Amino acid sequence: MEIGIPKETRPSEYRVGLSPAGVRMLATRGHTCYVEHDAGLSVGFTDTDYEQAGARLVFSHHEAFARADLVLKFARPLDDEIHLLRPGSAIAGFLHLPSAAQSKLDFFLKNEITAIAYEQIQTDDGQRPVLRMLSEVGGRLAAQLAAQLLQNDRGGKGILMGGMPGVPPAEVVVLGAGAAGCSATQAFLGMGAQLTVLDNDIQALQRVHERCPHAVTMLANTANIRRTASFADVIVGAAATAGQAAPVLITREILKTMKPRSLVIDLSIDQGGCFETSRPTSHDKPTFVEEGIIHYCVPNMTSVVARTASHVFFNAAIPYILEIAQKGLDTAIAENPALARGINTHRGKVINLLRFEADKED
Fold first, then answer.
1. Which of 242, 266, 299 is the last residue of a domain?
2. Which of 61, 270, 295, 346 is catalytic?
3. Known catalytic residue: 96?
């Protein structure tokens, strides 16, 4: 199979679609990997690293797409990138098509592009192995970012996350007890914060209670969300289902009840966000203030820990990439239900994709 690994072109996107280790695994099985010049430089992977692994270097973005039967990206493609795809080819990445522009979906359908969304690959027991690993990175990073954004020099209230003797710690609320929420909970607790976790799944709350007994758990009904928002210094939105729009849990009305200069971090922004006031930001300008509350809503937040994120991604995704390369796309989809659940479009048809009406991203 001909496989393309282009350099990511989204602003502040430092991750890469496949590491040299993955290229070596494909090359030794007889597949050809076309890696764009400097594709992995931000992660610390040089062109020499890729060449020694068996890659063929290409020196244009167009060539990395046009030569490939399968394009491996990390972030969702930009509009000008999808037009580089060869009709009938496939693209894999964290695509988040439910929140993408309709024009992008129309192009995939018209040109019979197979869109493989890593975030939707799901095993029979309900686990999403690729998404889970990146979600855990995002959850841990949320705590790291929150500690900085609470500082006065970042516009925050000037609160030390873990407090001091005689001074209470920060009050942190996590909405969602999935992979990202649990990871964030553990990280915040490690910093000494006071944690409250809300979810509408009692079994998920039970798991949090068992793993993190110092965290308070509550059902995510409107009354409890309103109550916790009133005292929170930080709210982390981690409520989302892959392939669907994130539920809006914090309305503008509830946001107005929060203490001034409190912080919200929307980990679900790539699926529309779970705060009514959320809008996508970037690493260059990651925050904005709405109703007196600091908002952090960067869709590709784990890009700034690109080396960790790229290695974690490789560990989770490589079995599926190898299966596609070895068996061919149609056979791999037919034989692997987990992979099949990650297919958004195939042969001109929409598959496993729930769209929603909202302002779409590019």
1. 299
2. 270
3. yes
